[in-house]
Amino acid sequence: MIIIRRKVELIGLFICLIIILYLISSRALESSEASLQQSIQEETLLASNQENTVIEEEIIQPIHLAQIVHGQSIDSDPYIQDYLQQHDYFQDLEYKEVIDSTPLTLEAGNAIAEDIEGVALNNEGYALHLVICDEEQQACYFRINGVPTGKFIATTDTSSDGITSFDLDENYRIEINKIIFNDSGDKRFYDVYWDKKNIVELTIVKKVAEVQEVE
Asked: Is the domain of 115 the same as that of 194?
């Protein structure tokens, strides 16, 4: 009987030991998972903060729109004012500062809602909106702060009656470098209506002062 009793006691102690080890390992696992979860949350928060910091550095604070474009006041035409109101006066547009020259690429197509680029010249904003391109006319049309530019053509097109440059103010102008019509990229198969787009490559350049010869 004594031997049987001791065996039972040993079995009981062994079972208790197993339960204790199980509880200890479970708590250790829970603690490890909690630490891992906390580390993941801290890393996610840090990455988010870093991303926000980068975004804040890239954002250029909106500036007021230039009131005169190509010699025309944006307040003089009710259609221009309606256009600006529809676009909330481009208050959320980011503006790239132009010192000497800045290249820009704008696109127009059925799958592109609107392509508008902002540039800053002497602390005044210019919103360049590629409105539409016409392959038949080989021309594209812009609005700048709502002011229509007229018919833009590529500099290589000598057969059309359009313009290749457009004065923004007394010191800067737009020069059209290249226009690509109905571009489908590298796609072998594409939707003719949705995938094709028109691409305009232009440059905002600073005018060179003309030196007059003295006789």
From this structure: yes
